[in-house]
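Tokenise the fold.
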Amino acid sequence: MITFDISQWRAWAPGLQTPAEWQAWAQGGLSPQSEAPAPDVSFLPALQRRRLSYLARMAFAVGWPLAEGQGALPLVFVSRHGETPRTYTLLCELAEGQPLSPTQFSLSVHNAVIGLWSILRGETSEMTALSAAGDGFEQGVLEAVGLLAEGAPAVLLIITEELPAQAYRPWIDDVPFSYAMGLLLTPGQQWQLQPELAENLEVTELPHALSWLQALLSNRHSFNHSWKRRTWNWQRQP
């Protein structure tokens, strides 16, 4: 069992930006919009904003405010599918015989977001990009808690997924809408997470990050997330 605190959180989805909007979503009273502009990242200079994809803008929108006022801050970035829309555009250009942009290619790799984060914030702390399965959220928490155990006073965890291109949707069915969530983890006993192995587990309907947020906003203190043969038991102190 691992223990930790979550001192702050932020989340973004089309039409869901404020805590009140996410609270309404958790209660079933508000749904994300089907289409919406990318989140506001006007805290960055215009020239720097131009390099950010929709996915990167979501990550920066939730992560940047949590990092403000912090010292050296390790980052764990989690995305199962990463820059799928950007990669799809590159593949379409390749199929049409068009020359590929080296810049677009370099920004399509999975760790491009943390590279941009390091450059734009001047951050040299340890950073990790994870592409895990359906329980990547918990895998990211484990990575972050490991950094806390090594002495980091706080770790930033960002989880984000972008709705894939239409051509991929028959195969990618675990992204109900584009979303990003940032958590600032610190040492403590507020949360407990226990992994177990089991058979015939029922898979969580929502992606685990969104399911966790829904449980938090519904004031649930105990819940489980399952993926394949793994189940993750979550406990929160009242």
Remarks:
- The chain is about 30% helix and 25% strand.
